[in-house]
Design the sequence.
């Protein structure tokens, strides 16, 4: 992920032909949180994809049921991402204040798995504003981190598109990692 970190801070243009904001014909609809899963483990991303195809991702329902944000606005947003074919990506960020998306997390230290979704949320916000970024704010006390500002760019969006395309179209493998203990799919995954 160190190359992703460099990409996030580079001065690439924000625009990308891989994204559309208007209603478009799409192959499937996925929650923005699928990018968390893909960042943790490609196999977890594949399991989430299969679950969404079978019904709906229960985490979207949890997002809808969470309380109103005390700052900014909380609303469902969407974009269309080209991952070989157009895919509708839907998400509900914790808060949107003008051109800043705020995503709260209980994770204090290792937030790398949240960065892809933060980039997607920033692009979702850009459908309504000129330029947006996402603030990832830890809600737990302790640690030295006070938050992370994620500034998206087209190069990283291309990377996310390719990763999603791979999970949709190819057989992927997993590997044991620290997230396995709390994974939704630990009962069926051969690596947990």
Sequence:
């Amino acid at each position: 992920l160190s190359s992703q970190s460099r990409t996030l801070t580079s001065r690439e243009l924000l625009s990308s032909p891989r994204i559309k904001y208007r209603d478009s014909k799409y192959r499937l609809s996925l929650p923005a949180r699928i990018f968390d899963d893909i960042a943790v483990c490609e196999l977890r991303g594949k399991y989430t994809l299969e679950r969404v195809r079978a019904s709906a991702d229960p985490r979207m329902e949890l997002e809808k049921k969470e309380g109103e944000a005390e700052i900014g606005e909380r609303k469902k947003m969407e974009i269309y991402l080209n991952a070989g074919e157009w895919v509708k990506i839907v998400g509900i960020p914790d808060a949107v204040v003008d051109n800043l998306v705020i995503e709260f997390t209980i994770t204090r230290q290792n937030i790398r798995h949240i960065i892809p979704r933060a980039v997607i949320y920033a692009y979702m916000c850009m459908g309504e504003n000129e330029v947006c970024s996402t603030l990832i704010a830890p809600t737990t006390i302790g640690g030295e981190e006070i938050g992370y500002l994620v500034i998206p760019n087209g190069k990283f969006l291309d990377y996310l598109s390719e990763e999603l395309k791979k999970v949709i179209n190819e057989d992927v493998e997993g590997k044991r990692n620290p997230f396995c203990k709390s994974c939704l799919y630990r009962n069926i995954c051969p690596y947990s």
